[in-house]
Amino acid sequence: MKKAFILLFIFILFAALFTQPVRADVAPPETVPGSNVNPESKTTQVRMVAETVILTVSEDPANADHSTAETRAVFTMRNLGTEPETMDVRFPLSFFNGNSDGFGRFPEIEGIDVRVDGKRVPTRNEVQPFLEGAFSFREREDIPWSIFEVTFPPDQDVVIEVVYTVQGFGYYPYDVFKYVLETGAGWNGTIGSAEIVLRLPYEASEQNVWVEDVIGYSPPTPGGVFSGNEVRWKFEELEPTFENNLEFVIVTPSLWQKVLTEDANITRNRNDGEAWGRLGKAYKEIIMMSHGNLRSDPVGQGMFELSRSAYETCLGILPEDPLWMYGYAELLWSHYYFDIYALGKPDTQNILPTLLMRLQTALSIDPNLQQAKDLLNEIYYAMPDAVSVEGDTYVYLGLTATPVPPTPWSAEATPTIPSTVVLPTSTFTMGVNTPEPTPVPSTNPLCGGAFLLPALFGLVILNKKRK
């Protein structure tokens, strides 16, 4: 026991001294990002007058937990000089800045189609130095480029179109795509105008496209305008640097499709308890981050309420279903432990006794429900004053301390939706109005003081297991 506390003290001291705003160290490995074309020549009179890039996202047929994006980039180039220029134009097939994916690998874009003024042109692959001046740790001095020859007559527009497909990277339930504007800095002057479009297979919203910082990823690009199934970013007179490279974080399409499917099921039959449960589970998967904590941004909080409402409605219709009770308790425990207990906030909504009551009821219906037992053991290790274990029996101390107020979704409710509860015809009207996003600190809550409580929890678990 003494050794455990010594280790804890050392850990706290180290975290206090060396806390830094870190994201990249916990980010997943990347696949190849998209990129602007780059001139081989260091001096050119050719300017990128305009560009339009469309990333069309679809479910990855080889892996339903991820997605792919067909990227179509159209560049309008103009030679501002008085003489024609014929040059090799380059497009990076791997990380343009020489970095690896974090594991020493350098994945490459496999297929690329290039057209100049509507005509397909041949390409060749060559290994050349990465982009000069790129923000890089220089893990690799040379990278593969797709190279094609283009002639730029003076004072005449030349349209270059590049099409390729990339896989999203990230940890389920999120996928990340990037587009690098920095490689366009080699052309003459500024990029006159740039429009980057993220196109989803369904309506785009702040629920399925992140607009604020993401734990485990670098910040997503702000300023996107939502319209139908698209999000658009526009830039004028841009002199691109690495700070202008774009990053998009989306909910994995297969998971968001579950939300749409269950919403449609509920619209057809509002007494479908299983559909309500599946909807609550889908929203829970979306907001459940690594280490068990929930999304803390306003949109994440709104989806927590959507998940909670769906679970409660489900249990109002199916009051004897222990699995849905466990699923609801898991949601509430993550919310309680990370958003209330860890922050020293009062439990004004009686979250802890509510989730304990659900677990108690679930085990009374199915005494062998292992998921409920595992969750109770987790609560016991984290908060022994809330649950104690006596042999094979769980004592729900949190229930005796605070009585649970009656709700329309209590275990005694009849298996129909109570008439006093007003439910929407579509789950997308269940959320609260989302306020304008507010700036959040650039520190990662997993790197520093906020990580100490889960770390202490881990040490306590280790010590108890040893006993």
Protein traits:
elongated, Serine Threonine Protein Phosphatase 5, Tetratricopeptide repeat, disordered N terminus, Immunoglobulin-like, eight-stranded mixed β-sheet, 467 residues, 2 domains, alpha+beta
What would you say this structure looks like, in words?
The protein is of the alpha+beta class. The protein folds into 2 domains: about 30-250, Sandwich (Immunoglobulin-like); about 255-445, Serine Threonine Protein Phosphatase 5, Tetratricopeptide repeat, CATH 1.25.40. It is built from 9 helices and 17 strands. It has helices at about 1-20, 255-270, 275-285, 300-315, 320-340, 350-365, 370-380, 395-400, 450-465; strands at about 35, 40, 45-60, 65-80, 85-90, 110-115, 120, 125-130, 140-150, 155-165, 175-180, 190-200, 225, 230-240, 245-250, 390, 395. Strand 3 (about 45-60) and strand 4 form a beta hairpin. The termini are close together. About 35% of the residues are buried. Residues about 1-25 and about 405-465 have low confidence and may be disordered.
